[in-house]
Design goal:
The complex is a heterodimer of chains A (113) and B (112).
Chain A: E1 3-5, E2 10-14, E3 19-21, E4 24-26, E5 33-38, E6 44-50, E7 56-58, E8 64-68, E9 73-78, E10 87-95, E11 100-103, E12 107-112
Parallel strand pairs in A: 2-12
Antiparallel strand pairs in A: 1-4, 3-9, 5-6, 5-10, 7-8, 8-9, 10-11, 10-12
Chain B: E1 3-7, E2 10-13, E3 19-26, E4 32-38, E5 44-52, E6 55-58, E7 64-70, E8 73-78, E9 87-94, E10 102-103, E11 107-111
Parallel strand pairs in B: 2-11
Antiparallel strand pairs in B: 1-3, 3-8, 4-5, 4-9, 5-6, 7-8, 9-10, 9-11
The chains are: A mainly beta (113), B mainly beta (112).
Chain lengths: 113, 112
């Protein structure tokens, strides 16, 4: 069965520092992968997605993610974080044979001034 | 462009009262529709999803139910709310046959 693991519950980085949020998935083939962001009290917004092709995908708000099949990972990166990036981030993978996606438990990002 | 609406934005209900949350999507046809619940500080729990009018799949047995009376309308209901029903309810849609989901702004439900 498909699954998604986000090993970091909470990460704090300084404003202007680089960021990497980890995501590992379990899937038998090349999956569809997603990263979403949720600000407090709001819905989820799609940051980026990977379906096929170039393993480095660019998203909105300056985020990017790299699909690494050998490591079953899809880590999210940003070269320089801004205070407005403080939010909850969710990695997700498609669930095959169903019109659903499976979400990780999320990583809360705090920004240190 | 497509938009998704949810209402109400916030709701405070007593235990044992009924519930009706509504979600509508504009700008698309025959979308897949989803209801999620997010408890405080927790991840997303898929409650129901629908691939067409009248077609509802339940993911978690509970005292909630869902209906899809129209193509772009998805309703979450309960006859009698429990304290444990408190949470943040999110509606989402995806294109038919697709996986990418788009979320509404959510409804904050507090059961007292």
């Amino acid at each position: 069965a498909q699954s998604v693991t986000q090993p970091d519950i909470h990460i704090t980085v300084s404003e202007g520092a680089s960021l990497e949020l980890r995501c590992n998935y379990s899937y038998g083939a090349t999956p569809y992968l997603f990263w979403y962001v949720q600000s407090p009290g709001q819905g989820l917004q799609l940051l980026l997605k990977y379906f096929s092709g170039d393993t480095l995908v660019q998203g909105i708000k300056g985020f990017e993610a790299e699909f690494k099949r050998s490591q079953s990972s899809f880590n999210l990166r940003k070269p320089s974080v801004h205070w407005s990036d403080a939010a909850e981030y969710f990695c997700a993978v498609e669930q095959s044979s169903a019109s659903k996606i499976i979400f990780g438990s999320g990583t809360r990002l705090s920004i240190r001034p | 462009s497509q938009t998704i609406h949810q209402w109400p934005a916030t709701l405070v209900q007593p235990v044992g009262s009924p519930l009706s949350l509504e979600c509508t999507v504009e700008g698309t046809s025959n979308p897949n529709l989803y209801w999620y619940r997010q408890a405080a500080g927790r991840g997303l729990q898929l409650l129901f999803y629908s691939v067409g009018i009248g077609q509802i799949s339940s993911e978690v047995p509970q005292n909630l139910s869902a209906s899809r009376p129209q193509d772009r309308q998805f309703i979450l209901s309960s006859k009698k709310l429990l304290l444990s029903d408190s949470g943040f309810y999110l509606c989402a849609w995806s294109p038919s046959g697709g996986y990418e989901q788009f979320f509404g702004p959510g409804t904050r439900l507090t059961v007292l």
